[in-house]
Amino acid sequence: MSAAARALERLYAVAPRDFTRARNALAAELRESRDADAARAIARLRRPSAPLWAVNQLSRHARPALERFLDAVDRLRRTQLSDPRGAMEAMRAERVQLEALVERAEHALAEAGYSASADARRRISDTLLGAAADRHHAEALTHGRLTEELHAPGFDALTGATRLRVVQGGAPRHDEPAAANARDERRREAAVARQRERDAKASEQDAKIRAREARIREREARAQERQREAEARRREASEREAEVAALARDAAEARRRLADVERRLKDARRGNSRRAR
User: Fold this and answer.
1) Following CA atoms 217, 223, 228, 232 in sequence, which dihedral angle do they give, to the nearest 10 degrees?
2) What is the pLDDT of residues 199-208, one digit of tens each?
3) Is the pTM for the entire model greater than 0.70?
4) Residues 102 and 123: beta-carbon distance below 8 Å
5) For residues 169 and 59, what is the distance between their CA atoms, to the nearest angstrom?
6) How many CB atoms sit inside 10 A of residue 41's CB?
7) How far apart are CA 272 and CA 266, in angstroms?
């Protein structure tokens, strides 16, 4: 592995907010090691977008799932060329693996403090599909050093075929008209696009539901806190009332004792007065 490739892997492991500082430090390190070409290549790099950064984290934190996705795309390519009837099953497997990776990337975004919007999910999905359709990009994806977001390829690019083999009656035919093949490809591409749109809408709806549930939980927590505060105030008022009642009883007892003392004092004075006469 070249020095530039190793530097790329190190650089794209850094959060986007720390990218510029890390890039400049790496470029200086490469210049000190007299690798001027690698230093220039690193110095020219721009800070990755949050979706691109999240895709690169998959090689570090979800490598087995990433390899399963690339295998699923490869199976889809081989299945479409050899068995169109099995293509839908292979496509479903590829979709499952893709959704799992998008969720892992979304989790990485949330942990880094970035918003995982429907647009971010779409860009992550498109970049994964675009990388899987190209060997060079797939290699960069596997090592977490993709330098740009990618567009999702068309169905023919994903399968590696410009003409589809159509199976009819159990035997492959290679003489279907080009127009029919083109219509089949367009229909498949449209189906994939519709599914992606449905997935994006479902993800957006799920996000709205989760946000609404979070707001409800927050309101319930605030209501419970207010209830606890009210109960504490009631207990405090009750304790104060008890203290006031106790003080009132003590005051009444003190007045009674004072009256008793005053009565005895009067009686003593009257006794003294009689004896004096």
Assistant:
1) 160
2) 666 667 667 7
3) no
4) no
5) 43
6) 19
7) 10
Same-domain status, 131 and 30? no
Is the pLDDT assigned to residue 12 strictly greater than 50?
yes
Please indicate, yes or no, if residue 134 is contained in any of the structural domains.
yes
Contact 80, 162 (CB under 8 A): no
The whole-number pLDDT of residue 168 equals 33
Least confident of 10-19, 68-77, 91-100, 155-164: 155-164
Instruction: Report if residue 112 sits inside a domain.
Output: yes
Q: Which long-range contacts (CB under 8 A, 24 or more apart) does 109-116 make?
A: 109/50, 109/51, 109/54, 112/15, 112/16, 112/50, 112/53, 112/54, 114/50, 114/54, 116/207
> Which residues, other chains included, contact 195 with Cβ-Cβ below 8 Å and sequence gap of 6+?
95
- The two tokens of residue 126 are 């498109």
DSSP string, 127-189: HHHHHHTSHHHHHHHHTT---S--PPPPHHHHHT-SS--EEETTEEE----HHHHHHHHHHHH
Task: Kindly state the percentage of the chain with pLDDT values over 70.
Answer: 78
Q: How far apart are CA 22 and CA 277, in angstroms?
A: 114
Does 2 reside within a domain?
Answer: yes
Extract the tokens encoding 16: 């986007």
How far, CA to CA in Å, does 166 sit from each of 93, 102, 153? 21, 32, 22
Return the DSSP state at 2. Answer: -
Is the same domain home to 90 and 156?
yes
Q: Are 129 and 153 in contact (CB under 8 A)?
A: yes
Measured distance CA(23)–CA(180) in Å, rounded? 51
Tokens of 166: 């159509």
Give the residues across from 172 on adjacent strands.
Answer: 167
Q: Could you give the number of structural domains in the chain?
A: 2
